[in-house]
Amino acid sequence: MLRECFYHVSNSNWAYAYTKEKIHLRFRTKRDDVTEIAAVTGDKYDWDRTYKEYPMLRIASDAYFDYWEATVKPKYKRLTYGFRITAGTETVWMVETGVYNEQPYPPGGYYDFPYIHEIDLFTAPEWAKSAIFYQIFPDRFANGDLENDPEGTEQWGDTPTTDNSFGGDLQGIIDKLDYIVNLGVNAIYLTPVFESPSNHKYDTLDYKKVDPQFGDNAKLKELVEACHDRGIRVMLDAVFNHCSEHFALFQDVVKKGEKSKYADWFHVREFPIEVKDGIPTYDTFGFFQHMPKFNTANPEVKEYLLDVAEYWIKEIKIDGWRLDVANEIDHHFWRDFRKIVKAANPEAYIVGEVWNDSLKWLLGDQFDSVMNYPFSNKVLEFFSSSYMDGYTFANSMGFLLMRYPQQTNEVVFNLLCSHDTPRVLTCVGEDKRRLKLCVVFLLTYIGTPCIFYGDEIGLTGGGDPDCRKCMVWEPEHQDNELYDFYKLLIALRKDYDVLRQGGFRFLKADSGDSRIIYERIDDKMHFTVWMNNTEEETVLSHPMETDDWKDALSQEDVVPENGMMNIKLDPLGYRILYRWL
Q: What start and end residues bound the annotated signal peptide (predicted)?
């Protein structure tokens, strides 16, 4: 055994309370190096009478490591533990003080989980585990009120640019709620709706006022109430990292310089406020001079922005916040943000925009979730061609799953594309078969899925602004077959708890083979998903011990032959099987 690859720490995503009674322990070893691991556990004050061993399951792998996990239920909410690692005839023990050839006498030197404090338990909103989000860019979804169209509104469906507007508004969303309900989604994520001079609204002027081109505060309340009546949650987008250069308090700094009482509201490196050699003398989002960055460590700024966060939850009853440029704001701010938001609505869902490893924000004191762009990158990389094999893809997904605790994985915000990326259909070369593989994976994978408006009827588009095209509403110009496919897969996910909260594992993901099989399983049901990410017809085989499998979409019986399931798949085809346990 390569002992240098052993890894465990008694915190974060390696040892954490999953519920008020259960602890998850994870352990890392070299890939394909260890055959068996057991967590040896007990209470540090009564080891002999509470001693218990828990076999660990290899739940994921990446290119270099295997990851093992056990769910432990300590008798007294305290846990002292170590690991017994076996490979063939060799057995060693690892505890906090090191690796030993003989088991160290417990409990001294063992790992310690002192106590499961319910107040420290990270619990995301339960409803988020069952949510299927639909992201809407309001200016491009539907124009329901011609009276509030901004000056220069262009004809619906014209080419989007960085600064043109098409008249989409809140009334348009209200008018199309039946469409949204029929699709089957049960949550909406709206990009910013607050007053702003731009079409995207990520440079806010007034944080407590809906932009007049979208409607007003009463219209937003009407939308939220109409959604709630239909069982749809609503999440708004907040931009607390920066504001518009026309924001009144920033303009006070522009005019008065360091004498402004708001000078410390922003990160001004040099007065006067100006742009030198293309770089503003104040910090901004990127280097965009029209988006000055807030100093969120300033108590007055913090109070102002936290009041905004609380206001929309209390007054309009929104169900959550998506937080723009979340990784560029200090952690102290986000900790206080969570307290304010959860006090206003304990079931509010908090999603940060972080494009990289986000563990530091996902330990229970800041966000519930993040936008999982690493997921979309790996899924699109695999399904957009047949170049990558299943082994590499499974390694990538295993690496991502091990980044976070289980309760985070259950609600991480998974997406295939958004207003900031090319459209998924464009990413897969406009091959609907490849798009369907992506969507099947999205809707049968662990986490909270999100669909970008129009993907379900075949919208294409490159990067911003092309990805922000107007929604197509004429039935003859919509891909109705694709819409029915989305609707079918959404309904499947909603019908079965196991697809939302069950365990996930690859059953087949081999080197040199782009065909994969993976499973979702809980104590009631077992799903297997078979995918042929090649351009050739194939028969995919895997051992199956029982003969009670059904096709999840057709309800046809699917019977193995001599203990082997042989599934015929079309080029770029898939099949979903299930059985009751």
A: none
